[in-house]
Each structure stands twice: as C-alpha cells, then as structure tokens.
C-alpha cells in the first residue's frame, strides 16, 4: 500500500510540473484593446478595454503579448469591460490590440504549501490515507436507514470517508444540504467546498432555505466566505461576509462602497476620454481600497471562527489561513470529479469526517502539462484514483460509494440515452419527470419533441480552425443554433443554454448574442459557453453544437478522445425539457467509430426518429430575425440589391475551382465608383480592385463590413445538396471576426 508521504511527494511534483508548464506557455488567452499608459514610474500601469468581462482576481500574475513583444505583470483592477495591468516593461503610450495570458498557478503553489503541512501532522496524514484507501467495510447501521438523506447522515457519522455518486438531477444538492443541516442542528462544524463559486452558492442557498423553513436559521451561523455574490444567493445576502460586516461596522462598509463606486465612474470616464489627472486619481483610489480591504479581512476571520457552516471554494480554502488553520467535524466536497486529487486530499485533511460528492461520468479536472505525474494525479478524479470506480467493471458498487439513482431533471426521451449508455442502466427516471417537462416539450421549435438531431449534412464545408487559437468554429452551425434560440425564445422559453466543445465557437456565439440579442437576454436567461464552463448548470432548453464537419479531415479530440464520453454526457444532462443537437451526421458517420459516444448518440437519435434535415428547414423556421434571414440560394434579388447599396466595400470569397457567373459579374460592375471590390480566390479576377490569392473553403459575400451572405455565390459552394439555402446576416462583429481569419 502506498504511504501518504509517497502520495504527497508525487502530488507536489505533479503540481510543480503543471506550474512550470503554465509559467512557460501560459494558459487562457484574452484579447485586450485600446491600451493606454496610466503611469510610467515602473511598474508601468496600463488601462485596457476588453470584449467580455474578465474575472481575473486582483493581484494575479499575467503576461501581455503585443506582436513580438512580451511582458510579465500583475492585475491591479478587473471590473466590467476594463482591466488595469501593472507591467514590468513599457510598450509606449498606446497599445491598439494585445493578448493577455493568465493562469492561476499561484493557487497551485499554495496547495503545495498545504501539502507540506499535511506531511507534518500524523492526524492529517491518516485522514488522507483513509481517502486514498477507503475501507472495504462500512460501519453505519444499514437496518436503520429511512431515506437517502438519512443514509448519508448515518454513513458520514460512522465512516471516515463517504463517496457519493450523484448523476445529474438525482437530488445531490438536496441530499447534501439536508445532511449539512442535520450536523448543524447537532452543533457540529461543517465546511462546504467546491472548485467553483457557483456550486458553493447553490449548496449554501439550499442549506439556508432548509434551515429557514425549519425555523433553525440563526444569523452568523451560516457563512458564504469569499467570492462575489451571484444571482443564486440574491435571496440570502445575510449569509455573506459583506452583509454581516455591513451590520457590524456600517461606516467601514460605506467607505468601501463609496470608493468602489467612485472607481467605477472614473473608469467609465477613462473609457471615453483620457487624462493624466484621472489616471493618477484612479491609482490613488486603488491604494485606498486596498487599505479598507485589509480591515475587512480581519473581520472576516472572526466571522469564520464563529460560524457553524462555512462554504467557500477549494482555491480560497488553500490560500486563506482563516479556513486551512481550522478543524471541522465534517467536510463536504461537492463536484469532486472536477477537483485535482491533491485538492481532494487537502479538503479531507480539514475534517474528522468527509463526504466526497460528484459524478465521475462528468468532466475530469483540467491540467495542461503532459508530464506523466500530471496525467496521473491532475487529469483524473479522486473516485478513480481511490479505486471506487473499479467495482463498476463487475457491475457492483464499492461499499463506501453511495449512488443517488433516480433522476428528476430530464424528460425521459432525453435521459433514455444517458441512462443506458453512460450510467450502465443503474439510474432511472422519477415518475414526475414526464409530466413536469411537458410544457417545455410542447413549445417550438419542434413542438412535442423533447430530443432532436438537427442534421447539417450536405450544407457546405464550414468548419475552420481559428487563426489565433486553433480552436474550431463553424459559422453555418452557429447561425442555425442562433435560429433555434430565437424560435425557442419566441415560443416562450426563458431558460436557454447553448454549449459547444470549442472555445472559439462559444466566444463567437456570446459575441453575436451580445450584439444582436441584448434586449431579449435582459428578460431571459440565455447563455453561451463551452461544455466545460456549463458543468453544474441546467436550462429548460439546451442546444449542443458539435461544430465538426468538412473540410476538416477528422473529428476533434474533444469529441472523440478519452474524455469525450464525459463531455457529451455533460452537454446532454444540462437539459430539462428540450435537447437540440446540431451535428453533421454524414461527417460523424464517416469519421467517428461506432463505439464512440458521439456516434452512439447520433445513431440513437436516428433510430428513434429524432432527426430533422435541411430539407425541412422551411417547416421549423417560423420567425426570421430582422438581422438573420434564411432564403433559397437561387433567388438572388436580395443579394444583388445589397451589392447596389454598398457604400465602401464588397468582399467575395470564391473557393477553389469556382469563378463568378456572368450575372454576378454584371451586377458587380454596376457598383458605385467608391466601392472597393476584393476577391479572395486562387484564380486571378480581372474585375476586382484587390485580388487575394488564397482559397477559402466556403463562399461568402461581405458588404461594407457589416452584412454577410453565407452560401453565396452558390457556384462556389462545395459539399452542398438541394435545397440550396443561403443566410443573410447583419453583424459587424461576425464580419470582423471572419475577415480576421483571412
């Protein structure tokens, strides 16, 4: 049996390898624009605008790349769509566009320190040993069990480490919250941990609801520690450190509020006009805010000591002595399948008993290094590494593994696939789930259908790799997916999710929604994200866009690799009532093996008559959006009218082997004198003002950099079968993105 000290040594080596990798290559890349120098007293502080809100913690280390120049630095402030960086080198007064690289490797360094402390404590080493080698015998009295909650209460009372397997919709939050509340009523100290703020919020909200209903809630006993208060906790501000400090020291809270508000206004001013006086004032404000936060910190430490149930993230727990120096009666680690094994071990070291809860059929933790120790300890979850999953190979459950086996989230037509193919038929549907989802199923698009495969076969070669990130995107599937969102929204859906494996596609959809769907989103919950970011969420309607198609020669690793089963499982199981799967069936049947989960899903949907092809596009598109119109590609009046109205530029992509017809040439020759015609083609075009000698996989027309025609000119469309469809999109953001790929 491996000793705890050997485990810790390997974990620390794995973490160090991951840190080295992140320092060398960086991780997340964000585009930042309009950088203005605020101060050049070294370090050099710059203010940048960002396309989306970057939630990078203040004080985080970053790298900035501008062309061939690079500089390390730190985040001074990150709020809304503006970020202030302190850089080691000056790049001059203005930086039009740069890339910000960020990875929170400091958090891994803190975890290494915590593991050192475990080494020195015999008690903590024993707790870790019990996690990694769970006992084969259980000590809880099985004959007394009355319900799921009661079983978990008993298991966590008698056994040092309990593993809970909670597939989606099986009441994991309900069960954990009531178990935590039960311990609280016995005056036990409980620590609730998870890797994400969202997961902590959901569980803390459920605990608070339950205790209030039972009239057992007492202010200060339940504490959500760290993190910005999200929507989930809007009804329970009284468990947040902010509100508790506001009550204890109103003046301190007011000072902080006033300075933060002043900073917000100043940043808005800086976004429009720039002055040295404003920028000096901003840096002064940051210093004052830092002083106030130090006072707030002291009060927070006291609040943690006095509380009975504390909820926070794993990162916060490992970096904050207010948590890691405490000892709890019970530690609950939620979403443990997404935590590194060393993080789970650290969590276990903080309590006499531990509940490790998650779903090892969902996404594993993410690490970047290819080092063998990283693969072993940071890319697989604790369920696998502690050996509790191995028993499933013999269709048995490990004695310490407690399965929640009745799902109440998905309509049975959606869960039929995951129950059978992912969960070994161990999970079933609760009787209520059919009726409770009928209202969603009855709405458009595809009324009375809960699961649909929208097949994009033979609609063209639209799947490309983003030039900057190499992540894949597919404009055709993006626009079809948006149409599904639009139809669902107009049919009454107010909770809609769009997921895709590829970050480029997710970012493109988010940017597109921000540009043309802002008003609708203000009254509905519509989110676009990668599957990884969506774990832990749920929506009434889910759109899963797999992106992959020709001209790619193979399906991406995200959809066919080792973790693809888990990724596809997450994409499906976020859904309550309507699962819309946008995929190219022809490409998948040609390039994905029959035993792979994506292929099984497509085959399952085909077998169950859940397929809709492009031939039926006219029957389900009932509502054309003013900015996105679908029409027959042979009807050219509208595109020719657009060409006539062009003010400054027309850009046409002609894929290999295609050239403009006489009809197109005639209409283009009637363009205004000031309208510049650019042709992207590997054959020279004498009618053009600019000829770009390259070939794009699909045809398109961009007019004045704000109107995009996709699927035209039809002569250039390859891999297309009737009916021939074209899309007209008015979006300067999508046009700009596409032009960057040329």
How would you sum up this structure, described in words?
The chain has a seven-stranded parallel β-sheet with strand order 9-10-8-11-12-7-13, sandwiched between helices. The protein has five domains: 28-102, Translation factors (Elongation Factor Tu (Ef-tu), domain 3, Beta Barrel), CATH 2.40.30.10; 125-221 and 307-401, P-loop containing nucleotide triphosphate hydrolases (Rossmann fold), CATH 3.40.50; 250-294; 406-620, Rossmann fold (3-Layer(aba) Sandwich), CATH 3.40.50; 628-740, Endonuclease Chain A (Endonuclease, Chain A), CATH 3.30.870.10. The termini are far apart. The chain is built from 29 helices and 30 strands. The protein has 742 residues and is of the alpha/beta class. Strand 25 (649-653), helix 28 and strand 26 (676-680) form a beta-alpha-beta unit.
Outline of this structure?
By secondary structure, this protein is α/β, with parallel strands linked by helices.
Comma- or semicolon-separated keywords:
Elongation Factor Tu (Ef-tu), domain 3; 5 domains; alpha/beta; Rossmann fold; 742 residues; seven-stranded parallel β-sheet; single chain
CATH class call of the largest domain: Alpha Beta
Q: Quickly give the CATH architecture of the largest domain.
A: 3-Layer(aba) Sandwich
Helix vs. strand class: alpha/beta
Question: Rg, please?
Answer: 28 Å
Shape: globular
Helix content: 40-55%
Low-confidence stretches: none
Tally of contiguous helical segments: 29
Tell me the name of the CATH homologous superfamily of the largest domain.
P-loop containing nucleotide triphosphate hydrolases
How big a fraction of the residues is strand?
A: 15-25%
Largest sheet geometry:
7 strands, parallel
The overall average pLDDT, rounded, is 91
Spatial sequence of strands, sheet with the most strands: 9-10-8-11-12-7-13
